[in-house]
Specification:
Length: about 170
């Protein structure tokens, strides 16, 4: 009788876990990041980094912010949300049908019922605008390039500067 109870308990556990989203979907998912232009440096608020385009395996539980940088382009960023979606709802319903209140608690705490959205994340970086001030040639600050004016002191007679090319 004791062995029969163990087998029935094990069978009940297997049936209830078979519908569990943590088992069927997992608490992580593949997440793709694409930028235009490519080869941008991407950083997530969770600490991960990559160079676009890239695929990461990320936890489903919490959302995060993605920031992309590339020389000559303005920074672009986006918020990625963690939301309950179709596959997670099916896993949750499976828990209810199987009587798995523990499974529902596990799915909710692990984030297995959630999906990261949008996925794939597409970011477009805009070229840095060149203003008229930025494109004008820089003014020279080299004083040696500026011809000196001959200015007499108050009690001196002006002296003419020598003519170019001669004495």
């Amino acid at each position: 009788m004791k062995n029969l109870l163990k087998v029935c308990g094990l069978a009940a556990a297997v049936v209830s876990l078979s519908a569990c989203a943590t088992i069927t979907r997992g608490s992580s998912q593949k997440f793709a990041i694409v930028t235009t232009p490519t080869a941008a440096n991407v950083k997530l608020s969770t600490g991960q980094t990559c160079v676009s385009p890239c695929d990461l395996k990320l936890k489903r539980k919490k959302g995060f912010v993605v920031t992309a940088n590339k020389s000559g382009y303005n920074e672009a960023s986006a918020v990625v949300d963690s939301r309950i979606r179709g596959g997670g709802i099916a896993g949750g319903v499976g828990n209810i049908v199987s009587g798995g209140l523990i499974g529902i608690a596990v799915d909710a705490s692990s984030g297995a019922m959630n999906d990261l959205t949008p996925n794939p994340l597409v970011l477009t970086l805009q070229p840095v605008a060149v203003s008229a001030v930025d494109s004008a040639p820089a003014a020279s600050t080299d004083l040696a390039a500026v011809p000196a004016a001959v200015v007499p002191l108050a009690n001196e007679t002006p002296v003419a500067a020598p003519a170019p090319g001669g004495e």
